[in-house]
Design brief:
300 residues, alpha+beta, 434 Repressor (Amino-terminal Domain), Beta-Lactamase, 2 domains, 14 helices, elongated
């Protein structure tokens, strides 16, 4: 199992990986001949930020006091960090204390989504939609999402997790045409969650399981990439309707920390819209089964 103190990584780990990605030319420094390591040297980062080299070295070694907002903002600028990367930098610089309440943050298994949110998702008729938490647990879905992405209703709750499906399901590249990007962004979401809640036991178990079961996950995790799910393209492949390219938009669920409503749409008149319409007709409940459901016990 992954260690609870290690899944988020240290501030020093993050600073080292980020400065390795920035060339001197990107920040206006003159070339200085052959370099033994990629990216910026520690003394160059210190110069850009306005710190002594000794203090910056102590930051990377975990021997410095909590850096100020001014220092963190300057580091973000020097290392050319985006908004998600800056948020992660702050999380690592100000780690939360271990508390009994951290386990439930971000939503637990399926029962933690309130019924109103679940009904909102299930009522979306013509395009896939899910609610997920920042551990990538899929907590609610509609019929088209289950038809296109995974058979969520018939999966055990533990398996309704996109990270597990992407890294441990050998058929995942057949479903996710953009598997490399999906893998990278999924790891980035887990990194963000780990920075916020390094002691979350479910997240610790998930990272440990993926690290043991997937060399690709281990490689990506070591890169310290972070990602905040917002919007973008997503390509699926379905055995009945073929390739489907959609666009997703992500919304913070009101009143529910770290729960995300993700809706996938297709442009009107596009092949993707036609594919979704076909998938909807192929998976629509039959008249007979609908009648049985209405006349049944009413459970659920």
């Amino acid at each position: 199992m992954a260690d609870q103190n290690m899944i988020a990584g240290s501030l020093g780990d993050y600073l080292r990986t980020r400065r390795a990605l920035v060339s001197p030319a990107e920040v206006g420094l003159p070339p200085t001949g052959r370099r033994r390591v990629p990216g910026l040297r520690r003394e160059e980062v210190a110069e850009l930020v306005g710190l002594s080299t000794d203090y910056y070295v102590r930051l990377e070694q975990g021997r410095a006091d909590r850096p100020s907002d001014e220092v963190l903002n300057a580091l973000g600028r020097a290392l050319r960090l985006g908004s998600a990367e800056r948020a992660h930098l702050y999380d690592l610089a100000r780690p939360p204390r271990r508390s009994a309440g951290t386990a439930g943050v971000g939503g637990g298994r399926g029962g933690s989504v309130r019924s109103g949110l679940r009904r909102v998702v299930e009522a979306i008729p013509t395009t896939p939609a899910v609610i997920m938490n920042d551990r990538t647990d899929v907590l609610a879905w509609n019929r088209l999402a289950a038809a296109l992405m995974a058979d969520f209703p018939n999966l055990p709750p533990r398996e309704r997790n996109m990270a597990r499906r992407i890294f441990l399901d050998p058929h995942a590249p057949e479903v996710h045409q953009d598997w490399d990007e999906a893998a990278r962004t999924t790891v980035g979401m887990l990194r963000m969650a780990a920075g916020r809640r390094p002691h979350d036991p479910e997240l610790v178990r998930l990272v440990g399981e993926l690290s043991l079961g997937s060399p690709a996950f281990r490689t990506l995790w070591a890169g310290h990439h972070v990602h905040e799910k917002t919007q973008g393209p997503k390509r699926f492949r379905h055995p009945s309707v073929g390739d489907v390219t959609l666009h997703y938009e992500t919304f913070q669920a009101p009143g529910a920390a770290h729960l995300l409503l993700v809706i996938y749409t297709a442009p009107p008149g596009s092949p993707a819209e036609e594919a979704l319409n076909l998938l909807g007709s192929l998976t629509a409940p039959s008249t007979a089964s609908s009648a049985r459901a209405v006349g049944g016990s009413g459970a659920g």
